[in-house]
Amino acid sequence: MGKLTTYRDKRAELKAHAKALKSTAMTEAKLAAKEARAKAKEAHRVDLAEAKERAKLAGKTEDRKLKREEKRIRREEKRLEKQEKLAKKASKRDRKAEKALSKQERATLKREAKLHSKDRKAAEKIEAAGRKHEYQLAEMELKKLEGTKIGKEDMQRWLGLAKIATPVLLPMVYKLVSGVQSTDSAATAGAVDLKAAGINATGPGAALGVRIVRLEQTLDQLEKTRGGEREVTDFIASTRTRLKDLRAAVEAAETTPTAQRREVHASISGELDRINKDIFARLGVKA
Q1: What is the pTM of this model?
Q2: What's the CA gap between 16 and 190, in Å, rounded?
Q3: Per-residue pLDDT tens for 97-152?
Q4: Is 197 exposed, middle or buried (0-12, 13-18, 19+ CB in 10 A)?
Q5: In 3-state terms, what secondary structure has residue 191?
Q6: Residues of the chain with confidence (pLDDT) below 70
Q7: In degrees, to the nearest 5, what angle opens at C-alpha 10 toward C-alphas 7 and 16?
Q8: Contacts 24+ apart (CB under 8 A), 116-125
Q9: How many Cα atoms occupy the beta-carbon half-sphere of 43 within 13 Å?
C-alpha cells in the first residue's frame, strides 16, 4: 500500500507539474502573442506615421511646386503686361514723333514756299532794277524825238545809242524810227542764255546774271563805237573787271545760307546800279 500511495503521489505531482508547465507555456504564448500584437501595432503606427509624414512632405512639395508655378505665371503675366505697356508707350511715342515730323515737314514746305516766293519777288525786283535806267533813257530819248524831223545822220546816231544802251530797248526805238529793217535781230537780242554766258545761278542770282550779261553786251557795243578813245578804253577795261568779280560773287552766293545770300544779292544789285549809271554817264545821258 505504501507503494501505491507513492505512485499516486508521484503521478499527481507529475500532473501538477505538467499542468504548471502547460499553464506557463500558455502564459508565455499569450505574452508572446500580446507582445507580437503590440509590436505589430507599433509597427503599424510607425508605418502610418511615416506614411502620414511622407504624405505631408509630398503635400508640402506639391504646394511648393504649385506656389512656384503660380509665381512663375504671375511673373510671366507681369512681364507680358510690362511689355504691353512698353509697346503702347513706344507706339504712342512713334505716333507723336510721326506727328511732329509731319508738322515739321509741313512747316518746312511752307517755309520753302515762302522762300521761293521771296526769291521770285527778289528776282523780279532785280530784273526791274536792271531795266529801270534803260527805260528812263528810252523815254528821255523818245521825248527828244517827238516833234522833230529825223534825218539819216540822226537816225544812225539814235540807233547807235540804243544799241549801246541795251539790246532790250531796240524794239521800242525801231518802232519809232521808220525805214529800219533789223527788227528780227532786235527781238532776239533781249534773250540771255546764262549757261552759254558761263553763269551758273538760279532765282535772284539768275536775274543778276542777266543784268551782268546785258551790261557786258552794252560794253561790247560801246567798244565798237568808241573803242578808239583812250579814256573810254580804260573805262571799259575797269568795268569789265568789276563785272567779272560780280560774276564770281553771284556764283559764290549760290552756296551761302539764304539770309546771307540775300544780303550778297542786294550788294551785287547796288553795284550793278552804279555800273549802269557809270555807263550812262559815259554815254552822256543822265539817269
Answers
A1: 0.44
A2: 167
A3: 888 888 888 887 888 777 777 767 766 766 666 566 556 555 555 655 555 555 55
A4: middle
A5: coil
A6: 1-4, 119, 122-123, 125-191, 284-287
A7: 140
A8: 116/203, 118/262, 119/203, 119/204, 120/203, 122/203, 122/204, 122/207, 122/262, 122/265, 123/203, 123/204, 123/206, 123/207, 124/207
A9: 6
